Amino acid sequence: MTTPSLISGAGLELYRALVVGGPLTTRELAERTGVEEGCVREWLGRQADRGDVTYDPEAEIFLLTPEQASRLDGGPALHAGQGLGQRTTSDQEVNAMAGMQVKSFESPDEVRPFEGKGRADVLEVGGRVVGRTTLEPGWKWSRNVKPIAGTDSCQVSHLGYCLSGRMKVMMDDGSESEVSSGDVVAIPPGHDAEVVGDEPCVFIDFGEFGEYAKRH
Description:
- With 216 residues, the chain is of the alpha+beta class.
- It has two domains: 5-97, Winged helix-like DNA-binding domain superfamily/Winged helix DNA-binding domain (Arc Repressor Mutant, subunit A, Orthogonal Bundle); 110-205, Sandwich (Jelly Rolls).
- It is built from seven helices and 13 strands.
- The protein has helices at 10-21, 26-33, 37-49, 66-73, 91-97, 141-144, 146-149; strands at 5-6, 54-56, 61-63, 86-87, 110-113, 118-125, 128-135, 158-164, 166-171, 176-180, 184-187, 191-196, 201-205.
- It has a six-stranded antiparallel beta sheet, with no helix packed on it. A three-stranded antiparallel beta sheet has the order 10-9-12, with no helix packed on it.
- β9 (166-171) and β10 (176-180) form a beta hairpin.
- It is elongated.
């Protein structure tokens, strides 16, 4: 029995093609989805091994039985080619096949609220975690994120772009720098930070964002 987990991108398109198009060969599936045939074959093999798709060796086709299709989202919308939101496919499998992924911070995969004064919107794309932090006036890492992180200073390495506002970064060695709108910055682990002024600071972070402000 599969355990649902959210997927998107290539895995979603492959399942949708199987539902809408019926039994397909790996070549037909690759042509319909734009995914390289070798990747399609490898991925389908894994799904067949788990019993999540069915392979007919005589016809050399893959298909979804009604039972397999119903497990994807548990509802009839799937059979109309909609609602394909749940599978057991790992993010790594999806990213290995995806030629391109497009996501928006307006529909984040996850929202991580701080201990007041802001939040982090999180996307998983291309095998990486990208964050958009919105830091309100008065925000300070040692007040608003430290209780979540449980460390004396921030031990995350940041690589990002400041969209708006200003932020001062205080390193553990006593050095300080200010980041403002339009700046690209790399911040090593071992620091505190705080918003400067009365405008929110919005920062796009491509660094080690996987566990940043993540509650366990």
